Amino acid sequence: MQRSLLNWAAMCLMLLAASAAQARDRWTAQKATSWYEAQPWLLGSNYIPASAINQLEMWQADTFDPQRIDQELAWAEGLGMNTMRVFLHDLLWQQDARGFVQRIDTFLTIAAKHSIRPVFVLFDSCWDPSPKLGPQHPPIPGVHNSGWVQSPGAAELADPASYQKLRAYVEGVLEAFGSDRRVLAWDLWNEPDNAGQADYETREARNKFDLVAALLPQVFIWARSKNPIQPLTSGIWSHDDWAPGVVLNSVEATQLAQSDVISFHDYNWPEKFKARVAQLAQYGRPLICTEYMARSAGSTIDGDLPIGRSANVGMINWGFVVGKIQTNLPWDSWQRPYTLQQPPVWFHDLLRADGTPYRSREAEMLRAMSALPKGVSSGTVAAQ
């Protein structure tokens, strides 16, 4: 049964690829470098307003909160940030494509007001595999990211008949915003080979990795068929060695072979972060770290930001304002919720709900390093 399903999925994907419009090629390393040199040094956070528990609550018409977004992006501007990584969701397109486009346009207008150009994420393999439109459940007390949802969900991923809807979403969003200079880049799939968290294991699609590995190349084709002016990427995140010549899984191989600019996640100690940058620099393309900062795991603004600045790596930490996603709590809160007392140190997130920094030193470093001319070493700021 599973073999038949995978064969059917492969056949559907072949038909979709054959019927796709002529896609632009992957950018050459020279074009990607020229694009990157024209940007300021990229600095930002993964962003969701404090009032939303997940992508659906952020973007649905009843809970879309432009006033809160405006306030929070003003705080980001004040920290010297010029980008934010922002997650979309395929169900929002199916629910109300026109309204979704209008709300994205509203978000981009607000972001441009604060000199911020977002990286939009289209798909995501992390957390709850059963997304549902409508009102979202409240946060589970004391638990990290208790309401985040995957896109596509497990049911869609396991059903090749749904892939036309996924294609319509990708192509529709890129058609609407692929020539919009307010958008910095497209992150097509967040951690696509993430198997999911143990708490959701029984609800994941069977053969999830194989299904994603077959679908990810098609997502790149769908996106490129709209000839976007922005770069496409999908960030690698697991394994210890990403250097050229190392054996990677098929998802990682697609990510590195198809991304115009290379993006990655790292939540390790600074020496590991520095080693990863050195590995990835060998591909000769611009680098953007699209997730870092887990303080109690060793990944910090103090340790990683100077390395990224000196290596001209774009730096986008996880977590901006503490809120309903509760990512100030560590991953182990799924095993032991922090209901009686808070952890000794915040895990993610930079600001409290009123906009004041969790650590003043972090805010000072962000402002100082964002103000440095491109190409100037960060050593002086880090040593202060």
Keywords:
about 375 residues, alpha/beta, 8-stranded parallel beta sheet, 13 helices, globular
Detailed description of the structure:
This protein has 384 residues and is α/β, with parallel strands linked by helices. The chain has helices spanning 2-19, 29-37, 55-59, 66-78, 90-113, 154-157, 163-177, 208-224, 250-258, 270-281, 301-310, 360-371, 379-383, and strands at 43-47, 83-87, 119-124, 185-190, 232-233, 262-265, 287-291, 314-317. The protein has an eight-stranded parallel β-sheet. α5 (90-113) links the parallel β2 (83-87) and β3 (119-124). The chain is globular and about 55 Å long. The N and C termini lie far apart (62 Å).
Q: Using DSSP, what is the number of strands?
A: 8
The general outline is globular
Q: Report on the biggest sheet.
A: 8 strands, parallel
Unreliable stretches covering 5 or more consecutive residues: none
- Please state the oligomeric state of the protein chains shown: single chain
Head-to-tail CA distance between termini: 62 Å
Order of helices and strands: HHEHHEHEHHEHEHEHEHEHH
Helix content: 25-40%
Radius of gyration: 20 Å
